[in-house]
Predict the 3D structure of the following.
Amino acid sequence: MKINLKGRNFLKLLDYTPEEIRYLLDLSKDFKLKKQNNIEHKYLTGKNIVLLFEKTSTRTRCAFEVAGYDLGINVTYLDPNSSQMGKKESIEDTAKVLGRMYDGIEYRGFEQYIVEMLAKNAHVPVWNGLTNEFHPTQMLADLMTIEENFGYLKGINLVFCGDGRNNVANSLMVASAKMGINFTLASPKELWPQQDLIDICKDIASINNSKINFEEDIMVATKNADVIYTDVWVSMGEADEVWASRIKLLSKYQVNKDVMNNANPQAIFLHCLPSFHDLNTTIGKDINEKFGLKEMEVTDEVFRSNQSKVFDEAENRMHTIKAVVYATLSDNDE
């Protein structure tokens, strides 16, 4: 079956079929091989894209910029202080202006409705680099990393440990349902996702012969896990005052050696990064002074272990984002 994604937005994986996601993953693998073998692939020379960031990032910005340069694209980066969107100019007007100047727009910021509004009014492809609700480009990198380690996706047992309401947990649940992965959330009930999203994902999972499960006991959740995934306990943009309550809720969901040993012997560890696994960050030091924690969502032992694939995962952001940009901007209809 031919897949043609030209002109499509990439806002959330709910908008994409398993076949379209598979196409993007295969395209990502091809681009990774080209990159590793120094094969030039400037297929989109002369195109222009803009990266509209309301939340800063290392991996998302670098992945989009390098992906763009490798494809021959001219890239403009607008940081949180370089755009008037939502301040002096409406989202609608910003979208219409940028859509006249650029061939594609990436947005990384707050509510999902903002990226949806950009897409509605820009009339060029819009890509979601992260919102409060979803993180679809991260999901492609995660799926690619899992497949690199196991050779397949269907039937994999993936467990997310931590805040089940955040954009990564939401998106992992969607990605798992779409691709036939068994998803389990290890989290206190008060941090489970919205019920409407759970219902949607369970319906999708049933079609793809996978399951969506929720468990408050981390050792029950991680038994027979193939992939154990976690994220920071307080997401970007949340108030510092949240740390105390979140630490109280999530400390027993830390991914440590006991948790990894409870999983399958070949299990891998994933994290979207950045991670608080030591005291080499200002936030890590601050949390240590206030709460006495030297590690948070994952121990340094696990983070640096052979089971940890976090840096492969980070690199794969570049290859998968390149695939998304190419597929939605090119005339290729393979």
